[in-house]
Structure formats: C-alpha cells, structure tokens
Design brief:
This protein is of the alpha/beta class. Helices cover 28% and strands 16% of the residues. Strands 1, 2, 3, 4, 5, 6, 7, 8, 9, 10 and 11 form an eleven-stranded mixed β-sheet that branches. It has a four-stranded antiparallel β-sheet with strand order 12-13-14-15, with helices on one face. The relative contact order is 0.17.
C-alpha cells in the first residue's frame, strides 16, 4: 500500500512540474446537449468514443453546472466567470429588430465585461472563437459589441442557431464579413475553422499559447445530421427524428475527434487543456413547433432546459490535459462553468481586474493535485422565465435549494427594466424545496419542513445570495414611447 501511495505522489509531482508550462486552453460547448446523451454517462445507443476518451483520460465531473438553464445567459456566465444576471443577461437573446417594451432588443454582453478571452489575450495568448455566439441582439452591427470586442483575435460565428439548419448553413460571419452558404454540417464547419486557424497560428507563432472557444450549434434545433449517421441509428430508434438526434450527437463526437487529431498533428496536444461541456440541459420534445427532433436525455435528473431543477443546468463537465491532469478521475465535487475563467487566470498567470466580482473559483489545485477548492459562496441561479415554479435555485455542498418568488405570483420575465428589476429585488423567497442531491440526485424527496438541522442555515444562505445577486443586477431602459 505504501508503494502505491508513493507512486501516486510521484505521478502528481511529475504532473505538477509539467503543468508549470502555461497550457493552451480550448473550451468546447454544446448547445442543448443532455447529461445523459454521452456514452460515458450511460447512453445505451449514442456512440461518443472521442468525448468518452477525453473523460477517461482526464477528469469527469459528475456534478458540473452551467451558469443558466438557457443559452445566452449560460454563455455569458461561462465567458465572464460571473452570474449572467450581473451582466444583465437574464434569458436567451432574440435578434434585434424593433424596440420592445421590455427593452429586450438592447440586451448584450457589454464591452466592459472582462472575459476569459480578454484575460488570456492580456496574458499573451492568441484567441479564436468559432460557432454560436448568442451574446448580443444586434449581431455584426455597430451599435453593440461583437466577439472581437470580447477579446477574440479571430471569430467565425452566428448570432443564434445555424440557419436554415445544421446542414449547409448560410449565416456564418467571419471577422465581420458574411460568408454565405457553406456546404457541410455546422459542427464540422466550426471545427474546420478552428483547425485552419490553429495551423496558421502554429506556422507563424509556434511558441505562443492559444485559447479557443468552440461553440457547437448541435444538438439544438433545427437538427440535421449526415444520412450515413442517421442510418446507423435507424435500427435502435422507433422514429426517424430520434435517429436524427442520435446522429447529431455522434457528429459532434466526430468533430471533437477531428479537433484532437489536429492538436496531435501539431504536437501541441499534451499541453492543451480541453474543457468539454454544454450550455444547459436538453430541449423538451415538441415544446415548440420545430422541436420534433429534440430527443435529448437528462439521465436521472429532474427537469429539462428552462428548469431550475438539475435537468436544466446539470451538464457534462470533462477536463483533459495530458501534461497537467492525472487520467481516469471521476470527481463528485460541485463545480461550475463559472470556474473556467478563474482557473484560466491561475494557469496562465493572467491578471484579474481589481475589485472584479467573480462567482467562480479556480480549479487549478483540484486539476493538478486533487486538492478540493474552497468555494466561498454557494452557486446561485435566478431565472425569471423558468418553466417550473421555482425561479431561484442554489447548490451548496450536497444541498440543492429552490424557492418560488411571492408564493408563485411573481410573473415570468424575459428581461428586467428599472420597474421590474425593483419588483425582483423586493420579491420574497417562499415555498422552499431542499434536496440532498448526493443521495437524491433526481430531487424527489423534499426535506423542507421535516426537521432538517441545516434548513434554517440553507434558507438564510439562499436569501442572502439572492439579495446580493440582485443588488448587482442591472436593468435595461426601454426606448418605446420616448
């Protein structure tokens, strides 16, 4: 036994020494991918060998959370390391057309937000973004900041979904210039852009570290998949649309494999940290007219996308870094996409602005030595357009706490104006639900009001966390009627 312990310490010491060299960083984020959609998470049919390999040769977090249960705020939270509410992004962002009474056409991630791309660029990294942006309403227009303003040297993006579908999209823009129709499937197209950029970067500046944000559209609707992959799943699905979804996730896995091979060919794979995750839980089948191919699975988690139960934001969290992470780890410690920016700061040696209010914590010690990080405050979500009645949720250690606002009478909000922001600040948290998600991950047994010793402390924490978050949440001023 002593020999095993000594060997483990030697391995960790060697990994830590290698980790002294600043790693390249790649964040791969899927759109509406269910926790249960991966082979490594137990899906009985969908084949994801490349993603599974990243998990098996790195760290797989079984309690990884996105920063919101819907796309735009989730992406803003990941990029900033802050609750998206602090950036004023409360729900998904529609394309700006005409002024609205709730000022939703104004919503965007402000140029003043400090992103992981800005952090790493200031630390000497080259930066690239490819895929779905969805952090502004006025995409590729001068009235709002664009990906380049968020710290990306090179960007190749769409405002929201690939259009008309994942197949042969027509709405990609490269560094401000519309590209037009591109033959192929979006996840492959976005990956090809990254592979080309990596090759060019390696030729010109082989010693400069890089950061890539690869944001797949898949498997968000409108789903479209290669026919040969759809046929592969026809025998194990009872509907062609289900086969389309399974093939869509498989195509993402092939794109991940292509990315990893490109890193290996450039001989930069070993010192590249790859983070694989998703923006939120899977879409509910047929929730809207064109959601007929949304066959995603949350596994055993309750709820789906747009829910504050875990199915809404309990997502894949895979970290792979050959030079810095001991392979084969499965960790249950609660972590979040909020943690990516502070982790990148410690790994790169980049400087954070003074007085920056971060909601994440650095995972560097956890990744390299297995040391559990101290999370100084709970994870908190306030999603005012949730499908379920609880608009506020908190994860703290093994506990998940949910609350309604004003006993469920608080109306759904897609955005906050000065008037509705004040209403949200004044709202009372009520009808608490408390779950021990270590023993009850499906959130079935509500322990609130059943003599739980921790109940008073947890209710105090969610109230304090909500009030602190709302005190730092901005409003958007409508221009309608002015």
């Amino acid at each position: 036994m002593r020999n095993v312990v000594c060997a483990s310490l030697i391995i960790l010491s060697a990994l830590s020494a290698k980790a002294a060299e600043r790693p390249n960083v790649i964040v791969v984020i899927c759109d509406d991918l269910g926790y249960g959609d991966l082979g490594v998470h137990g899906h009985p049919h969908i084949q994801t060998p490349n993603i599974d390999r990243l998990a098996n040769e790195g760290i797989r977090f079984t309690n990884f959370y996105s920063t919101a249960p819907v796309c735009s705020p989730s992406r803003v939270g990941l990029l900033t390391g802050r609750s998206p509410n602090r950036a004023g992004v409360y729900d998904w962002i529609p394309e700006a057309r005409t002024p609205r009474s709730d000022a939703r056409e104004q919503v965007h991630m402000k140029a003043s937000e400090f992103t992981v791309a800005k952090l790493l660029k200031s630390a000497g990294y080259a930066t690239c973004m490819s895929g779905k942006w969805h952090c502004n309403a006025a995409f590729n227009r001068p009235e709002q900041p664009q990906p380049g303003d968020a710290g990306f040297d090179h960007w190749f993006a769409t405002q929201n979904n690939a259009s008309p579908s994942h197949e042969n999209p027509v709405n990609y823009v490269r560094n401000g210039q519309p590209v037009g129709k591109i033959e192929g499937y979006s996840c492959q197209i976005a990956t090809d852009e990254v592979v080309t950029w990596l090759g060019d970067h390696h030729k010109s500046k082989p010693d400069q570290p890089f950061f890539v944000y690869l944001a797949f559209h898949e498997p968000h609707e409108p789903v479209a998949s290669p026919p040969e992959l759809v046929e592969k799943y026809s025998a194990v699905t009872w509907h062609p649309d289900q086969a389309q979804y399974f093939a869509n996730v498989h195509n993402v896995d092939l794109a991940v494999g292509k990315l990893v091979k490109a890193l290996e060919d450039l001989d930069v794979r070993k010192n590249t940290l790859i983070v694989f995750t998703a923006d939120n839980g899977p879409e509910t089948l047929n929730r809207y007219r064109t959601a007929n191919r949304s066959w995603g699975s949350t596994g055993l988690f309750r709820g789906m996308k747009l829910h504050t139960h875990d199915g809404g934001f309990h997502v894949a969290g895979i970290f792979n870094w050959p030079n810095g992470i001991q392979p084969g780890q499965v960790l249950n410690h609660p972590v979040s996409a909020l943690d990516i920016l502070p982790t990148a700061a410690t790994l790169s040696g980049g400087d954070l602005p003074k007085n920056l209010q971060l909601d994440g914590t650095s995972l560097t010690a956890l990744l390299t030595t297995g040391q559990t990080p101290e999370r100084k405050k709970p994870l908190i979500w306030a999603y005012f357009n949730a499908v379920n009645d609880a608009r506020v949720a908190m994860r703290h250690n093994q506990w998940k706490v949910l609350a309604r606002l004003n006993h469920g009478t608080f109306p759904k909000r897609e955005n906050l104006t000065p008037e509705t922001l004040q209403e949200a600040k004044d709202a009372e948290l009520t009808d608490f639900e408390i779950y021990n998600v270590n023993s009850d991950p499906a959130e079935i047994q509500n322990l609130a009001g059943r003599g739980l010793d921790e109940e008073a402390s947890l209710i105090r924490q969610i109230n304090e966390s909500y009030q602190q978050l709302m005190s730092d949440s901005p409003a958007w001023v409508p221009v309608v009627g002015k």
